[in-house]
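Here is one chain, start to finish.
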Amino acid sequence: EEETGNKVEVRYGDSGELAMLINEEGEKTPADVFLSKTPGSIGVLEQNEHLTELSEEVLKLTPSTVQDVEGLWVGISGRQRVLVYNSELVGEEELPETIYDLTEPEWKGKVGIAPNNGSFRDFVTAMRSSVGEEQTAEWLNAMAENEPLTYPGNSPIVDAVGIGEIEVGLVNHYYNFRELSENPEHKGLNYQFPADDPGSFLMVSAAAKLKASDNQEAADELIAWLLGEDAQRYFADETFEYPLAIGIEPAANVPEAIFSDVSDIDYQALGDGLAKTEQMISEAGLRE
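Its structure:
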């Protein structure tokens, strides 16, 4: 508001619930811009044709690898999946080369996951989109057979790794950096899987413009501001997420994100496939 003169009215809530609300409101929605923490929620609106193309001025602010191929959404920050490991219990030479290696006998009972958490659900849904249903189901079943320890979220996994309760855990990258900023003695370090590995998936927080909006120009200005220096440095330095605007570096000590192009991921399938993902996780026996 201070920088653009545009008054901003915000409705906060769960990304999925807000997406469904906008979907129900249709052309009568009062929303101009939708900011989503998870890609699946963007998929719901894209699938139902509620989005419209962003301006060229907005799209040129990020690499094409983190925006929709049709210009319907753009990533404003990113969270990469990584393996957090206890540096006193696991040597670098022992780390798995791929996420599939975690199903090997040497990792039995040593891996922490959060199967009820939204980030794990999004990761599995993206895995389905990238490698297919069959391969994803095989990995889930193999993981379950390897007896991972389950936790309610990413932070408890990071804590458990730090105290040696488990050796490694699958989390979003920024949780371990937050812990290190508060506790320099924390023993956890992040390991990035190769860029083409499903374990390195980059989940974007995305911004999109509603087709029904009467404030198209102001909507573009808001999204452009979120990709500006002040907002991007907030994402980088305060939340330890990856800033996605061109020319903005991650926070100190946070390595560059190495990931595959996410622009052609079928976000519509992500939006429509969350129920199927929940079913697959449950059928694999990863939930009590």
